[in-house]
Design brief:
Elements lengths: L1 H11 L3 H12 L3 H14 L2 H12 L15 E4 L4 E2 L8 E2 L4 H11 L6 E6 L10 H11 L7 E7 L2 H12 L7 E8 H13 L2 E8 L19 H29 L2
Parallel strand pairs: 1-4, 1-6, 4-5, 6-7
Antiparallel strand pairs: 2-3
Helix pairs in contact: 2-3, 4-8, 4-9, 7-8, 8-9
């Protein structure tokens, strides 16, 4: 099931859906499908289109100054920022590195006594170390005492993270705890749904904003297809699909109780 959940979106997101439309157009000799494929590929590769989609996904969140964050019982930092490569024993931080830095900022300013890292790891990626273990080591090197760090069990996705953090902190619907949830802005809405369903009272602290500043001037380059534009469009649409699936699944579970 997990493999399907990772593979199926590739077929309905660009460039996978564009390729399928092009193949269908050739096989069934339908020029309209071929042109739809090319048009979709071009539009979704434009940087201003990807930027607009990402801005929509990130709304209504904005960066909140640390001093305005309420105190909580724990700071939860979601996985998804490390690339494990040979020669880098603690991995290399990717573009979502603000999740780690944001969690440390909150801890260092006394917003919560515990810093929780999730053990992100795919079942088939057995040669890697759960991401949380490497992040915990980085945190200890930055001065966070071991007794103030909590790690979850291995988890493959956000739904697993919510359940694992609840288990690690002893949370249930009758024993809620307030946490500060740290993740990328585009990923926050889905994460909030899942952590609240797991029994948490959640204060979101979004980081890693991908959309550019609205004050930036539009240039000719914005109308030229690019890999960056396609990446932004794909990430935004993937997150939108994920939200829809989780929302539908949660409503279905509530209706069957």
């Amino acid at each position: 099931m997990l493999i399907l959940s990772k593979l199926l979106p590739l077929l309905v997101l660009p460039p996978g859906i564009c390729l399928l439309l092009a193949i269908a157009g050739l096989l069934f000799k339908r020029r309209a499908l071929w042109w739809l494929s090319m048009g979709s590929l071009w539009v979704l590769s434009l940087s201003f289109v990807g930027d607009a989609l990402m801005r929509t996904i990130e709304a209504p969140y904005h960066r909140i100054p640390v001093e305005r964050v309420r105190k909580a019982e724990a700071i939860v930092v979601l996985s998804g920022m490390l690339q494990q490569i040979e020669g880098a024993p603690l991995g290399e931080l990717g573009e979502a590195a603000d999740r780690f830095e944001g969690g440390l900022d909150l801890y260092e300013t006394g917003k919560a006594p515990l810093l929780v890292f999730t053990g992100g790891q795919m079942p088939w990626d057995t040669d890697s170390v759960p991401e949380g273990e490497l992040l915990a080591k980085r945190a200890r090197l930055r001065g966070v005492p071991s007794g103030r760090i909590r790690l979850t069990s291995k988890v493959p996705n956000t739904a697993g993270e919510a359940v694992a953090v609840a288990a690690a902190l002893g949370v249930s619907k009758t024993r809620p705890k307030r946490i500060i949830l740290v993740t990328s802005a585009f990923h926050m809405q889905r994460s909030l749904m899942l952590f609240r369903a797991a029994g948490f009272e959640v204060d979101p602290w979004p980081v890693d904003f991908r959309a550019t500043d609205l004050k930036r001037r539009t240039t000719l380059l914005d109308f030229i297809p690019s890999a960056e534009g396609m990446k932004a469009s794909s990430e935004a649409l993937r997150e939108l699909i994920g939200r829809t699936v989780y929302r539908f699944g949660m409503r279905f579970m509530m209706s069957t109780r």
